[in-house]
Amino acid sequence: MNIDTALIHKTLKEFFGYDAFKGEQEEIIKHLIGGGDAFVLMPTGGGKSLCYQLPALVMEGTAIVISPLIALMKNQVDVLRGFVSGEQSIAHFLNSSLNRVQLDEVRNDILSGKTKILYVAPESLTKEENVALLRGLKISFFAIDEAHCISEWGHDFRPEYRRIRQLVEDIGRAPIIALTATATPKVQSDILKNLGIAGAQVFKSSFNRPNLLYEIKDKVDVEKDIIKFIRQNPGKSGIIYCLSRKKVEELANILSLNGIKALPYHAGLDAKVRAENQDRFLMEEVNVIVATIAFGMGIDKPDVRFVIHYDIPKSIESYYQETGRAGRDGQEGRCITYYSYKDIVKLEKFMQGKPVAEQEINRQLLNEVVAYAESGQCRRKLLLNYFGESYTEDNCQCCDNCLHPKPRFDGRREMTMVIKLIESMPEHFKLEHLAAILAGNSNSLIKSYNHDKLELFGAGKDHSEKFWCAVIHQGMTLHLLAKDIESYGKLFITEEGRRFLADPWEIKLVEDRVFTGGGDSDDDDDEETAAANAALKSAGGAGDPVLLPMLKDLRKSLSKKLKLQPWIIFGDPALEDMAILYPVTYDELKSCQGVGEGKAHKFGAEFIELIKRYVEENEIVRPDDFVMKTPPKSTHKQFIIQSLDKQLPLEDIAQAGDMEMDELLSEIERLVASGLKFNLDYYIDENLDEEIVGEIYDYFRNEADSDSVQEAIEKLGPDYYENEIRLVRIKFLCEIAS
Q1: CA geometry: angle at 6 spanning 5 and 8, to 5°?
Q2: Are strands 262-265 and 237-242 parallel, antiparallel or unpaired?
Q3: CB burial class (10 A; 0-12, 13-18, 19+) of residue 187?
């Protein structure tokens, strides 16, 4: 085919407003116009859409663009129509969001030859009536956008995409261009093979986005952290990704309550509402869109200044593509992801029941995410290497690991201990169980297996359980350890691990891990909250050095007067928060760590009075950005509250709520910490020995230095089960300490 270069450049200028092409755009366009198949691997913001939009305008016939993103279809159709004033028929989309009248309008425009580019959802393309419609058209070419959806190894696999090749043959073969922003060599090979375009010319651009700053943060007090970040960046546009529709709705609501213009966006919303929310974001009537990762946000907005992942994505490809929505204009782009290993465990649970082969693929993708999140290496180097591209700089100066390097140590001794422990046990166990053994922390499960009698029990007691969790995570990242697919979550030693055990070599482990990976006990929550408190201190100082001693003196005075231990009134973290936040109302006092409704009203009056006087006398400007408004209690919590009021057995409540007993106790503990009180005597009297209850209660009343369950386990000894201690602790907190 004769290629008119002058026409191509004229269209670029007059239609799209650009003077020159970027990168390989012109070469790709000429190759497609010339009738060749093409595979385009170009990062988000690189200009992929132009590679098929421009050829569609200059070639005879209608281009069929297959895209899974309804949002992107509407956005791109609006953009194309905007280029030609008053010409609405030049571009259309065909998907489930259209009503019958709109469908007829699309069909009429297509058959009249006015439509140069038609966006089709893969599900719509499989309908026989649409295949019949397209058979009668002159098709200029087929463009498969988001082509990674074809591959089972891609991050957003869609079975409908596997049928595209057959559908193309049914409609009538024309040149094919497959485009994606993310594809490893494995995914690339799968795409070319499945589409039957093994001879296609491959155009591959650099994956490096130098204007993006990558950051992984510990998943603690996320809502508060997000609100603070957005307030520090007023007027900037951002997208927040969540894994579930429920979390999207909750977070959008919390942001709105706290004065941030935010809207939800997910597949469960009415199509009209979705379209309106998208348009309001594009028109900058709202600053933030909260969206599901699974549905995607195919919005072509160049000035998105931040992308936040509330939940860790399921693959590196998904992470890269979604962060790529930021800074498409080449300007500032901040990419923040909140990570907790507990989220990985939840994602693994969702895999159960799926075919083993599918579990294997998904688990490998997840392992790569864990390796990325927990690594101390340059994040840019890790990302580019993942996609087969080398990054030779020692320091990118634009990721958290390069800006704030984490200390490292030779971990061969620690890793050897982990491997020896696994080797010494005839059965396989989960990561948290192994970490507890090495740290010397006994619990009912460890006792039941007599693992507190093992030679290595407590061998690493100079480190915390959290430290050992981090070491084991990194052992998996280094492929010395792996999880058994058949017996979910249980660790075994790999061949590489056995070679390491026989002759250990130097391995650099990250020393200062912030990320939590433990179980569901309240001690994990205490550690996470402490980490969040430390982050607040680092952002705004370590608390008022004059006020803090005054608060401690007041607590000591009250302690003597009420004959209660100081921690029962307010723990140190609560006082430290008071010295940072300067709360002067009961509502503000409740925002301090460990202060619920009951504790605030029971002990708070004199503290509020002291702080109020101190603030006025010293003309303190209070950091009100730390005070976060929260929506009413969730239905899940209401269910627990109502069930306890009805005095239902805890086992029945857990079963009805699809929870383990540990999870239920954790929920009750959180409710008590928020200020609610429960009478669990009906359950305790029936299930616990009266003498045991008395001894545990007496420990918390007279001996304990804090309400820590772990400290209670260590002090009370092996005759008491963990859940017994937790139940009596709840009773004590409700009766005395709240």
Answers
A1: 65
A2: unpaired
A3: buried
Q: Are the C-beta atoms of residues 194 and 162 closer than 8 Å to each other?
A: yes
CA atoms of 211 and 394, how far apart (whole Å): 17
Answer whether 523's CB lies under 8 Å from 347's CB: no
Q: What is the pLDDT of residue 589?
A: 87
Strands 408-410, 333-339: pairing kind: unpaired
Strands 139-144 and 62-66, by their bridges, are parallel
SS3 content of the chain, % helix, strand, coil (to 5): 50, 10, 35
In CATH terms, are 5-204 and 522-626 the same topology? no
Q: Indicate whether 576 pLDDT > 50.
A: yes
143's CB contacts (< 8 A; 6+ apart) are 52, 63, 64, 65, 66, 176, 177, 178, 179
Mean of per-residue pLDDT scores for the chain: 81
Enumerate residues 6+ apart whose C-beta is below 8 A from 334. Answer: 212, 213, 215, 233, 305, 306, 307, 326
Nearest CA-CA partner of 103 in 93, 112, 90: 93
- Nearest alpha-carbon partner for 310 in 243, 228, 233: 243
Torsion angle (degrees, nearest 10) of CA 126, 130, 134, 136 = 130
Q: How confident is the model at residue 212 (pLDDT cuts 50, 70, 90)?
A: very high
Neighbours of 291 (CB within 10 A): 29
Q: Give me the architecture of the 5-204 domain, per CATH.
A: 3-Layer(aba) Sandwich (3.40)
What is the Cα–Cα distance from 725 to 712, expressed in whole angstroms?
7
For the chain, what are the domain ranges? 5-204, 209-339, 522-626, 635-737
Query: Among 131-135, 636-640, 689-693, 709-713, where is mean pLDDT lowest?
Result: 636-640
- DSSP letter, residue 332: -
DSSP code of residue 16: I
Per-residue pLDDT reduced to its tens digit, 192-208: 888 888 889 999 888 88
For every residue of 420-441, DSSP letters joined together read HHHHH-SS--BHHHHHHHHHT-
What's the CATH architecture for 635-737? Orthogonal Bundle (1.10)
Vertex 692: Cα angle to 688 and 693 (nearest 5): 70
Q: Does residue 716 surpass a pLDDT of 90?
A: no
Going by C-beta distance under 8 Å and a sequence separation of 6 or more, which residues neighbour residue 38?
28, 31, 32, 175, 176, 177, 178, 200, 201, 202, 203
Those residues whose C-beta lies under 8 Å from the C-beta of residue 450, and which sit 6 or more positions away, are none
Topology, domain 522-626: DNA polymerase; domain 1 (1.10.150)
| pLDDT the model gives residue 399 | 93
- Would you state the CATH architecture of domain 209-339? 3-Layer(aba) Sandwich (3.40)
CB atoms within 10 A of CB 448: 9
Highest mean pLDDT among 164-168, 247-251, 321-325: 247-251
DSSP E strands, 479-540 = 481-483, 491-493, 508-510
Q: H-helix or E-strand containing 289?
A: strand 288-292
For residue range 666-684, list pLDDT tens digits in order. Answer: 888 888 877 788 899 999 9
Q: 72 near 97, Cβ under 8 Å?
A: no
